[in-house]
Amino acid sequence: MINYKVTKCRNPKFPDDSYFKGTAVKTGELNFEKLAKRINDSTTVTMADCYAVLKSMKQHIIEALHEGQVVVLEDIGRFQVSLQGKSYPEAVLTDKEFKPSEMIRGWKVIFRPETKLKNEIRKEFKLKRISSEWME
Predict the structure, then answer these.
(1) 28-63 pLDDT tens trace
(2) Can you give the residue range of the structural domain that contains 90?
(3) pTM (2 decimals)?
């Protein structure tokens, strides 16, 4: 069940213009320890082993991203690094004049869920409106 509330938003270009949209409401977090406990409860693997595998997986994902690899977790999704910065027309700047320290301003990790994961979530997808009064 996905909880949501209706949020009133303002258009920054037209301050007198406002609109409403549905916003997902977070109900908690599932951290490594809780995930390891759930895996332990549903398999024969010990909680300590689950936790160790999850921590190791995290470290291997970090290393692969540092190496420029796309990390593919079958039936779950893909992680990859994306760079953010300025782009210049070829008439203004050549590739030899490109200075990464000035023109690459940041990076982010992108997660793209696999179609199978999205379909499984969609199959059981239900919405429940939460009163906006107590959420604001």
Answers:
(1) 999 989 999 999 999 999 999 999 999 999 999 999
(2) 70-123
(3) 0.76
